[in-house]
Specification:
two-stranded antiparallel ribbon; Phage gp6-like head-tail connector protein; mainly alpha
Amino acid sequence: MVRPSDVRIVEKLTGEQDEELIAVLLDDAESFVLAYTMRTKIIQPLEKPVRDLAVIALNRMGTEGENSRSEGGETYNFNDAPKQIFDTLNRYRICRVGGKVYENKKK
């Protein structure tokens, strides 16, 4: 679930004013993080990687399918998400044991 505070943070970081677009990108990023970590909900340490992935997606809009670009003597390379994001995601990834995922759930 996209939190309004996350929308505001992404607005501040990027200058983008389209709240609906930001909410869609945050929702997509959250879905990716949940699938990658095999969790059922976003825990506090994963909130920043969700925002970071949304910012990356916003910044890459219009360059889908490109590996690199050269303009005005400058070259840009488009890689996957930065390593530090995956380092954080890996830290909170739940492993699968015997085909099942075990996640601590607060009662």
